[in-house]
Structures are given as C-alpha cells and as structure tokens.
Amino acid sequence: MFEDPSKLLLQSIVDYAIYMLDPDGCVTSWNVGAERIKGFKTHEIVGRHFSQFYTDEDRAAGLPQKVLDIARREGKYQGEGWRVRKDGSRFWASVVVDAIKDDDGQLIGFAKITRDMTEQREAELRLEEVREQLFRSQKMEALGQLTGGLAHDFNNLLTAILGASGLAARNLDKPEKLTRMLDGIRNSAQRGASLTRQLLAFARAQPLDIKSIDLKTFLDDVTMLLRPSLRSNIEVVTELGDKLWNVDADAGALELSLLNLAFNARDAMKDGGTLRISATNETLNGKPDGLRGDHVALRVADTGTGMSRETMDRVFEPFFTTKSFGEGTGLGLSQVFGFAKQLGGAVTVESRVGEGASFTIYLPASRHVAATGVEHANGVHGRGRILVVEDDALVAELAAGMLGELGFEPEISHSAKQALELLGSGERPKLIFSDIVMPGGISGIELAEKVRKRFPELPILLTTGYSEDVAGAHGFPVLQKPYELDSLASALAKVLKQELTVD
Ligand SMILES: Nc1ncnc2c1ncn2[C@@H]1O[C@H](COP(=O)(O)OP(=O)(O)OP(=O)(O)O)[C@@H](O)[C@H]1O
Ligand SMILES: [Mg+2]
Fold it and tell me: Residue 398 to residues 377, 380, 416, 418, 483: CA-CA distances in angstroms?
C-alpha cells in the first residue's frame, strides 16, 4: 500500500511542527517536526488538547481558546509567543493556525504550524545588545572628543585671561593699554561663558522660559555683546523690517543661537567680510518644515567661504564639525536647531562654496501684546540695563566693563542727545549713568533734569572729575571720578536702593 504523498511531504518537514486539531482543539495528527520541536512522541500527544503546549500563564489567560476563536472567525491566526516542550523548557514560537472547513463551510478542524524561533530571537537580542554597545562606545567617544575639545578651548581662554591680566597689572598707568587688556579678558570670559552655556544646553534640553521679545532692542543688545568678539575686519550690519512682530522665545537661548551663528560666520570670514543680521515678518504657508502662520524670519548671513552640499547636509548634526580639534566641538548649530524646534519654529541654511552662507531661524510671532523694553531689560542680564552716557569712548568702555562686572547690562550713548533719543523711542533702562561734562550740546545735569521731568521714575547717577560740578548737581547723586568697582557698586546700590556685592 502506498503512503499518501502529501503525508510523506508533511513527515519529511523537520523544522516546522505541523499538526491537525479537531474543532475543539485536540491534536489529531502531527509530523516529525512536531515531535522534534516539542519532544512528545506521537502516541503521547494525539488526542490531547493543544493548550498543553502553552505556558501556565497563557493557559490561565485563556490564550489557546482565543487563538482558535480568531482562526474560526477570521480563517487564520498568526502570532509569536512562548511555548513549552515536553521537558518543561520554553521556546519562542512563531505560530500560524488555519481553520479548515468542508465544502459546506462547516469547520472540521485546524491546521497548525509552529516554528521554533528561539535562535533567531536570541540572535536578534544579541544584535541589539551589540548595537547598544556600539552606540554607548560612540557616545563615549563623542563625549571624549567633546571634553577634550572643551578642555583645550578653556585652556586657551584661560591662557588669554592670565596673560592679559598679568600685562594689565603692569600697565596700570597706561589707560589705553589697560583698556585693551581688559577688553581681551572680557572677550575671553564671554566666550567661556558661551561654551559653558552650550554645554549645559547640550547636557539637557533646558526648559525654555518663553517671553514675548521685541527683536529691535534685543538685537541691539546682542550685536553689542557680539562686537568685541569679532575682528575689526568684519562689518556688522543689521536690517530690521518695518513694524516687526514680537516673537515668543527664550531670550537666553535666542541670544546663544545668534552668538553661535555669528561665531560660525566669523570663522568663515578669516579675511574679513560682512555679517548681516536681518529680521522680517513672514506669514508662512507650509514652508519650511510645514510651518504655517505668522513668523519672524531672523537671518544671519555672511560673505565667507560658504560650504559644499555635503557639509550643508550635516551641519545641524551634533558633533559635526570641519574645524580642527579644539577649535570647534560641532555643537553650535545643533543648539540652534534644537532651540528652533523646541519653540515650534525651524532653521534653514543656504550656501554655496565661495559665496557665503545664510542661516534663517523662523520664530513664531508673539500672540501677546508688544512687550515694552522694560520687561526685556531685566530679562536677559541679571540686574538690568544701564544706559551709560559718556563722550569719551575709552571711559565709556571701561564703565561698561565695570557695570558688566556688577551684573548689569551696559548700553552706551556717546551724547546726551543720543540718550534722549533712545529714551524717546521707548527704551527704559534701569538707571542712567551719565558724565556731567560733555563738550558741545547738552550737559549731564541738563540731561538729568530733562529725564526727571519726562520719566520721574527713572533713577540717575552722575559722574564727574570736577569737584565744582558736584556742588551744581542740584540734588542728583554724583560719583567722583576716578572711581573703582567698589565705589561704583556702592553709589549704584544707594541710588537703586539694593545691595550690590563685589567679589
Ligand atoms: N557660516 C558658515 N560658513 C561656512 N561653514 C559653516 C558656517 N556655519 C557652519 N558651518 C559649517 O558647519 C559646521 C558645524 O557648525 P557648528 O556651529 O555646529 O560647529 P562648529 O562651529 O564646528 O563648532 P562649535 O560651534 O561647537 O564651536 C562647521 O564646522 C562648518 O563646517
Ligand atoms: Mg559653531
């Protein structure tokens, strides 16, 4: 008698357990594969319920019945899960159950195919583990590069600071030299501060402190902060559109983004060029990045080396840098990118080799009423903005340096007229610090009187090198020149009625 060929076929398949169940789920027949995989002899299993192959938990959860129900209803069940061998060991199985019906559509049983996936699963798990290890080691390597680069950067900055302060100490009687040294020190320290912030921003996405920002005053401040860090062969141009909308953003993070873009531009313009910062209102319609509605496009463009398509594709990647070790960490643009995303905006880049580069940050326009300068003045730099009115540029810089030291944000006007214009345009510093004698035009005392009339709340501190002026100051507080950090601090403290410590 010949064996049924299809039965022969089934019997010769050893990698799959193939067996038939009756409509209740009892095993009616099975192949060698089933014997091999599950460990039961045919006579041990035929007639038993297939739930035997399930784990206790799955049986308790009614899984075997669910599998049959699905197969009955939908014609087929497919899934993966743990199954149990005769010896109690478990294996990971891929299972297909087909409902078998007769010509009248009556269910006559189920065909079940089970495949032992344990090896594949283990291989997958191993692969995943290897991947994770690789990822971890790449992260460590990146971190190593980062800390190495940072240590190098900080060392350079510290060298500059130490060198300049040593020289400054020897040139106390030469104000011009001294100012230069101090400027150098301040620049280095600012660069250090921006590095630290970068690092912090990278270490964890800091929650943004979102406020409505008036870009006009904001950009004035940022360009002032920026100027000393750029070489003199770089011209800075700002172009602001009419009636610019306020934007909703975190002032500190926005400032850092602009510094990052500006530093990149500086690095790309070794032989000098123009750094153009512009802002325009734009109502977007899906581009870029699916953005819609009112935005302000803040653009930082340079006339530097530009970059290739390949570089451009990668610029926003963390740690991507074309600069040499210690010169760049490759984090600047990833900060800009992360910031724009976090705000619900976007950043784009356009560039060609030899034709400069242009980065645009799209910031959501403010939903609030336009902010006044006051809110901003106290938002960015701890103690608020102080308007320094001083005709002598060097002295103005020095005063600004000291105010910065005390945690204020200095803003310089070179004449009383300029200061009045600033105030007229809505600028509200926390205090006005003005020289009394300014040749030509309005004196500090006249300025003080005008300010007291128009803005009675605005505190004023005058300063002069001439003792006779003090007598004529009509009740305005006067700080005698030359002053030092301590005396400036205590004069300010008295006027602002707040404590200022100098360390
Ligand atoms: N204005 C630009 N002109 C030309 N290339 C640029 C410009 N801005 C960025 N790039 C390229 O993009 C790369 C990444 O910039 P990113 O600011 O992220 O890092 P970095 O400047 O190299 O280092 P870091 O900002 O951390 O000091 C730069 O190394 C440079 O190759
Ligand atoms: Mg950079």
Answer: 21, 21, 18, 19, 11
